[in-house]
Amino acid sequence: MAVKSAKVSASESIKHESDVLLEIKGCPFIIERLGEETTATDKGDMVYNLLLEFASGGTLDGLIHKSKGHKLSEYDVRRYTRSILEGIQHIHKYDYVHCDLKPDNILLLPTTTTSSGGTSFVAKIADFGLAKKTKVNYSRWRGTPRYLSPEAFINNKQDQSSDIWSLGCIVFEMLTGKSPWDLKPGYNPNNFPDVLMFDHLRTCKLPTGISDMARDFLKSCLAMNSRERLTAESLLSHPFVAQPQSSKEGHTKVKLINSFLGYASGQLGQAVYYAFKIASLPFRCLAQRNFVIFVVVLLLLGFSGFPIAAVSFSSGGLLIIDMKQDNIAAMSLSSGGLLIIDYMKQDNEI
After folding, report:
1. 72 with 140, same domain?
2. Is residue 148 within 8 Å of 95, Cβ to Cβ?
3. DSSP state, 8?
4. How many whole angstroms separate alpha carbon 347 and alpha carbon 344?
5. How many distinct structural domains can be found in the chain?
6. What is the DSSP string of 255-317?
7. 28-38 confidence digits (pLDDT tens)
8. Closest CA to 182 of 198, 204, 209, 206
9. CA distances from 157 to 19, 139, 165, 309 (A)
10. Same domain, 264 and 121
11. Residue 121 shares a structural domain with residue 189
């Protein structure tokens, strides 16, 4: 068990954290509140104590700095990111914004022992002292500058999309060991004009040497415009963190491929994703110049084994129809997005 303590006269933040944890209790990806108590010191001072579950694995920040090259394997990054996302989704469901998501506030708790004798850890969100309701506004941003969103700096606006930006910073740091926005020498986050002008912040550059799915996930979190960031619920379906699911008879799957690269998931799989990503480039270029192209070709669908009857491309749209198998796949290509609607009529489950 871990204990957070403060003199009763200075315990407002801890008591607030206790209240938030009590309200959102029940999520396995948020640190558990075990109780509270008030004690007296030898000098007679009254102390408020918040009792929490103990994280024997330390913090995510400590793990990053202990890792080789100060970065984690993409496999581990995906595991921890999904856990954090599950926690964020739960927080947002209760209309809260955490406001201070960072590796220091992500705790690691043991779950199982691996086949090699090691211990597997799960990530849990902690430290809710700065959490607020979504519509509550303050005169100044709350949290840690390195993980704050642009709108928090400029407009003191922190809503649920701000937590998504912070998540992107955490994922970036797990993958690279560095912050997305490197601070130039002399930067002072308390200097308000500096913050407004962004004189001491460099625009983030996505790291090289990571998978396309990881890059696309980061773009979905680190969009400068807060309205372009995906929600926690949507990000949980992203292939970077998504858990595989089986398809059912008559099931209609709609996957939104967001941001610049786009992504595909579900039954089409990663192989088709990469094929469409490459194949779509010339079509997107042509579509942006308002060309209308109609192409009829014979292709072989890997998952059906039957040829496609017709392929039609017009104004950024690609329609594939397999008349023999009643398979219809419609793709809409536009600037910055790919929408795949895959309807499959089958007699048996896959």
Report:
1. yes
2. no
3. G
4. 10
5. 3
6. EEE-TTT----GGGHHHHHHHHHHHHHHHHHHHHTT---------B-TTT-SB-SEEEEETTE
7. 999 999 999 99
8. 204
9. 23, 9, 13, 52
10. no
11. yes
Q: Report whether 255 contacts 237 (CB < 8 A).
A: yes
Q: How far is CA 256 from CA 99, 132, 193, 222, 265, in A?
A: 27, 30, 39, 17, 9
Angle at which helix 160-176 crosses helix 74-93, to 10 degrees, equals: 170
Is the separation of the CB atoms in 26 and 94 below 8 Å? Answer: no
* pTM for the structure as a whole: 0.67
14-18, 173-177, 231-235, 319-323: range with lowest mean pLDDT = 319-323
Residue span of the structural domain in which 6 resides: 2-52
Q: How far is the C-alpha of 116 from the C-alpha of 332, rounded, in Å?
A: 46
CB 280 within 8 A of CB 333: yes
SS3 329: strand
Are 126 and 105 a contacting pair, CB within 8 Å?
yes
Instruction: Mention every residue, 6+ apart, whose C-beta is less than 8 A from residue 217.
Output: 81, 171, 235, 238, 240, 241
Q: How far is CA 44 from CA 12, 36, 39, 47, 103, in A?
A: 19, 19, 9, 9, 36
What radius of gyration do the chain's Cα atoms show? 24
Q: How many other CB atoms sit within 10 Å of the CB of residue 262?
A: 23
173 & 103 share domain: yes
CA distance 150 to 147: 10
CA 43 vs CA 7, 39, 50, 214: distances in Å: 12, 11, 20, 54
- Judged by DSSP in three states, 247 sits in coil
How many beta carbons lie within 10 A of that of residue 224, not counting itself? Answer: 12
Query: What's the full length of the chain, in residues?
Result: 350
Instruction: Show which residues are catalytic.
Output: 100
SS3 68: helix
Give the β-pairing of 119-125 and 310-314. Answer: unpaired
Select the more confidently predicted residue: 231 or 339: 231
